[in-house]
Specification:
Elements: E1 9-12, E2 15-19, E3 32-36, E4 39-42, H1 48-58, H2 77-84, H3 108-122, E5 126-127, H4 131-139, E6 193-199, H5 204-207, E7 222-225, E8 243-245, E9 254-255, E10 259-260
Parallel strand pairs: 6-9
Antiparallel strand pairs: 1-4, 2-3, 4-10, 5-10, 6-7, 7-8
Length: 261
């Protein structure tokens, strides 16, 4: 059996931070003070090589184009399949040369299954981060900035779609290609969207708990954070941006990172 590898973790200290943005989307308001207890989060998104250990040990289905998600509705299925093709696994093996890239074509359920397997393998609780944990980590201890490094977009600091005409030539990059934020975390903006554990609530910032909020108890949409290589709209790369998608969503631009107890 392939052994699990402990993730490379960064300690995020307990404390308050300002969550949200006052000058952006309605669901990012109001800006509010949130207390988050100490946690340890992966410095990198989960890579294809790490996910391959799970696939082989647990017999979990490898990343592939399965039933098409709701996000492909409206005639986008052909484009989805075309862009997904370079990321499809064969014989439980990641695509050649992508072992150190973030794993993609992952549903929220796939990410949760990986966390359960890693919990059992390591003997410590592993899970997805909450929205509040993710945003606190992305901000790197600095309140109010748009991106993990500051207020101005910087192509030398993250992987996003600078030129839409180059979409077919772009894609994921190896984790750690770009500089980390002040907490030592990589790819908190761009490269791949990241699943968090929360259901989406448009008004949750007005009614949620001020201490370790975990999101609504249920909902119609799940939350992704961080933006990806496919985004040309740089507002989606902001620390505060909340991307909501149907629960069946998976794509060539969606991965995840883990939190450990």
């Amino acid at each position: 059996m392939t052994l699990a590898s402990p993730p490379n973790l960064a300690r995020i200290p307990a404390g308050e931070f300002l969550m949200g943005a006052s000058d952006a989307e309605d669901d990012e308001r109001p800006v509010h003070r949130v207390y988050v207890g100490e946690f340890f989060i992966g410095r990198f998104p989960v890579t294809c090589d790490e996910y391959a250990r799970f696939v082989r040990a647990a017999g979990h289905p490898a990343p592939a184009v399965r039933g098409l998600p709701l996000i492909t509705a409206g005639g986008r299925d052909a484009v989805f399949k075309d862009l997904a093709l370079p990321y499809v696994w064969e014989d439980n093996n990641p695509p050649a040369g992508r072992g150190s890239h973030p794993v993609v074509l992952i549903t929220c359920d796939d990410a949760a299954a990986y966390c359960r397997w890693l919990s059992d393998a390591l003997g410590r609780f592993v899970r997805l981060p909450t929205e509040a944990e993710w945003e606190k980590a992305a901000r790197g201890g600095i309140d109010g900035q748009r991106y993990p490094w500051g207020d101005d977009i910087d192509p030398s600091r993250c992987n996003f779609l600078i030129d839409p005409a180059l979409k077919q030539q772009r894609g994921t990059r190896p984790t750690g290609t770009f500089p980390p934020n002040s907490y030592g975390l990589y790819d908190m903006a761009g490269n791949v969207w990241e699943w968090v554990s929360d259901w989406y609530g448009a008004d949750y910032y007005a009614v949620g708990e001020p201490r370790d909020p975990a999101g609504p108890l249920g909902g119609q949409m799940r939350v992704l954070r961080g933006g990806s290589w496919l985004n040309e709209d740089v507002t989606m790369l902001r620390c505060a941006y909340r991307h909501r998608v149907p629960p069946d969503t998976y794509a060539y631009s969606i991965g995840f990172r883990v939190v450990c107890a």
